[in-house]
Each structure stands twice: as structure tokens, then as C-alpha cells.
Amino acid sequence: MLHGRLIGILHGLIGVVLAWAYWPTLVDSADRWYHDPQYSHAFLVPMFSAYLLWRNRAALIEASGHPRWWGLGLFALGLGLRYAGHAVYLPWLDASTLLVCLAGWAAVAGGWPALRAALPAILFLGFTLPLPFRLQIALGGGLQTVATAASTYVLQTVGVPAVAEGHTIVLSETKLGVVEACNGLSMLMTFFALATGFAILIRRPWWDRALVVASAIPIAVAANVVRISVTGVLYDAAQDEWARVVFHDVAGWLMMPLALGLMFAEIAFLRRAIVPLGRPGRSLPGGSP
């Protein structure tokens, strides 16, 4: 009984220390999620992580009776990295150290078994973290270039006269600028989190799940290209008002359903194209079991 109380007190102290140390970081993160469309999906990420913990609750409960004190070292490592990130002003490192501390907390609670059970939920919280500034700029510029080139090709293919000049698509009567806000990075971040969540939930071999996650990038880019191409077709048809509505309002709502439809089609294709060995009721060519 005394041992159990000491463990409970220790977990309470860890929770208080984490809340005190990371409260400013959590407040800044919530403000960024609310004002930056690129991270608007982050409000749903903790709820999905909580579901993953609940789904693995049996393993967590079983491991909770075997605490491991080496988890405190992992916890201390996270706090040390946080201090380093704060000293050199790296917000992404500052926020990411919370995941290290949570991993240490899980290890304290039940050693490796508890850490393995909690790790998917902890890693999924990474979708709430800000991208390093240089990486964000590099991704944004690359996506702008790809979206401009691919959209120009699609417009030319459907018979619309279009020429790419930098990040601008020159049409017959107007110019369509693929600005930074339309580079598709926000869509990519949200859809990548969704694809990862689906990959965790579906009952398929690991290589199928890896394909689903990896395909999130081309699917998100394709959805953005469709958006820009449809806008270009409408502008070429001299329907400027409709083009503005599609580009700024309708397309923003339709991009995600389009991307989800492509992902579901991919999952359905994988289910039919790749049959795991050992599935009952299946046989190899020639009648061999």
C-alpha cells in the first residue's frame, strides 16, 4: 500500500512539473493553432492521441505495476533539451521536448511495456509541433513550384492557353498567382496527420500502412493542383467571379474530401492487390493451400 502511494505521489509530482514547465509553451501552441490555418488540425490531434491510449489501456494497466526508475533519466533529458532550445531560441525544439518528457513518464509508469503501448499516442502528438522555420520555407517554396508547373501542364492538356512564369500562371486574359498561402502546405500538414491516423487504425500489413502514409504527399499536391487548374479553367471562360469563389471558398472545402476519396480508393486497391499470406479461405494458384 505504501509503495503504491509513493508511486502515485511521484506521478502527481511529474504531472505538476510538466504543467508548470510547459504551460507557456502550451499557451503559445494553442494561439498558433487558432490563428495559423496550417495548424488548425492540431486541436484534434490530442483527442486522437487520447483514443490511442484508451485503445492500448489493457497493456498500460498490465505494465503499470512494474515501474522503472530509468524513465526519470529520459524525463531529465527532455527538460535539459528544453532548456537548450529555450537558450538558443528554437521554438520547435522547445515544444518537441514535451514528447521526450511524456515518453519518460510512460517509462516511469511501466518500463518498456508501458512505453511501447504509449509510444503511438506520444509520437502522434508531433503533428501539433511547429515546423522549423527553414524547413517550412523550403517546403513552401518547393510546393509552390510544383503546384505552378503541374497546374500549367493540366491547363495546357485540357486546351487552356497557359504559361508558367515563376509562381504565376499566365492565361489568355489574366494572370493566376500561386502565392504562398496557396502552396498547399496547410493542406499537406492536415492530410498527412489524417493519413497517419488511418494508417494506425486500419488492419493491414505494415507495408500497406507505410504506403498510405507516404502517399499523403502526392495526394495533397494533386488536390491542390486540381484546385488551381479548375480556377484557371473558370478564369479562361471569363467567369471571374466564379473563379474567385472557387479559388478562395469552395475549393478550400472540397480539397479535403477529394484527398480523402483518393486515399480510400488507394486503400481499397491495396486490399485487392495485396492479399496477406495465411488468410483463411485463400489458396495459391494451382489449388495449393
Written overview of the protein:
The radius of gyration is 24 Å and the shape is elongated. 72% of the residues lie in helices and 3% in strands. The protein contains 10 helices and 3 strands. The relative contact order is 0.08. Mean pLDDT is 80; it is low at 280-289. It has helices spanning 2-35, 45-55, 57-63, 71-87, 91-124, 133-157, 185-201, 206-214, 216-236, 240-273; strands at residues 163-165, 168-170, 175-177. The protein folds into 2 domains: 2-128, no CATH class; 134-272, no CATH class. The longest helix is centred in the N-terminal third of the chain and has 34 residues, at 2-35. The protein has a 3-stranded antiparallel sheet with strand order 1-2-3, with helices on one face.
Structure, briefly:
The chain is built from ten helices and three strands.
Please specify the SSE layout and strand pairing.
Blueprint: H1 2-35, H2 45-55, H3 57-63, H4 71-87, H5 91-124, H6 133-157, E1 163-165, E2 168-170, E3 175-177, H7 185-201, H8 206-214, H9 216-236, H10 240-273
Helix pairs in contact: 1-5, 2-5, 3-5, 4-5, 6-9, 7-8, 7-9, 9-10
Helix content, binned percent: over 70%
Shape field: elongated
Taking all Cα atoms into account, the compactness measure Rg is 24 Å
Number of helices: 10
- Give the class from helix and strand content and strand pairing: mainly alpha
Question: What's the story with the biggest beta sheet?
Answer: 3 strands, antiparallel
Low-confidence stretches are 280-289
Q: H/E order of the elements?
A: HHHHHHEEEHHHH
Please report the total strand number as a whole number. Answer: 3
Instruction: Determine the strand fraction and express it as a percent band.
Output: under 5%
Strand line-up of the largest beta sheet: 1-2-3
Q: How far is the N terminus from the C terminus?
A: 55 Å
Number of domains: 2
Give the mean pLDDT.
Answer: 80
